[in-house]
TrEMBL record:
Protein name: Pimeloyl-ACP methyl ester carboxylesterase
SUPFAM superfamilies (UniProt xref): alpha/beta-Hydrolases
Record keywords: Signal
Species annotation: Lentzea jiangxiensis
Record bears the keyword RNA-binding: no
Lineage, uppermost ranks: Bacteria, Bacillati, Actinomycetota, Actinomycetes, Pseudonocardiales
GO molecular function annotations of the record: catalytic activity
Amino acid sequence: MHRLTHRFTALLAVLVAASGLALFGISNAVAAHPPAGQKPTIVLVHGAFADGASWNPVIERLQRKGFTAIAVANPLRGVASDAQALDTLLATIDGPVVLVGHSYGGAVITNVKARSPKVKALVYVAAFAPAGGEAAAQLAAKYPGSTLGETLAPVPLPDGSTDLYIKPSLFRQQFAADVPARQTALMASTQRPIRDAALNEASGTPAWASIPSWFLLAGADKNIPLRAQEFMAGRAGSRATATVEGASHAVAVSHPNAVVELVRRAAG
């Protein structure tokens, strides 16, 4: 009786394992062989003083249009290392990808190493698009209008560098003046800091030199002046630009429809 019970238990374990492997195999087969005409995956990269939730209004609308959207947890530690983390994620995605970067996230997508047809478009949303050797801080200061430096609260780190936050009392007026006060209070409390070295790190060879780009410009941006955004869009040879008049730096939160429309165009 004991021997029969043992054999039955072993057989049951084999069946369960086989079932699990079959399900795993089906899942991988679907991922590895996307259906013909599959829409590109939209990968969204947030910038400084924000997190992945800043893309929520955009993601909700993209999903309603049938897109798969992924909001990356951008480390905000350094351009090269953050871009490497993004490359690691992109390697796990089958099929075409549209990369969308906001603010410093634009510098990250600019440094992506994926030169294959996988990345079919870059979308910059009130974002940095540096050339080789340029840093985000350098571009922000290229034209007058940025008041970010006056609002920052530094936090020293053990390695001698500094984490930068926007002072909560100044967050709305600096970052999201066209977003309701209750919402910006939450955004200020959940903001993620950027390491000062990341804003001053020189960019590598720009992805926009070989991948088509689209730009959404925020007309009342106090982080990246509009003239700086226009300069970067023109230099990158943008396929299309759209300016949202009166929009703050948090244009993806205040005007998600404009972001989605540009992403849809970039996705083809």
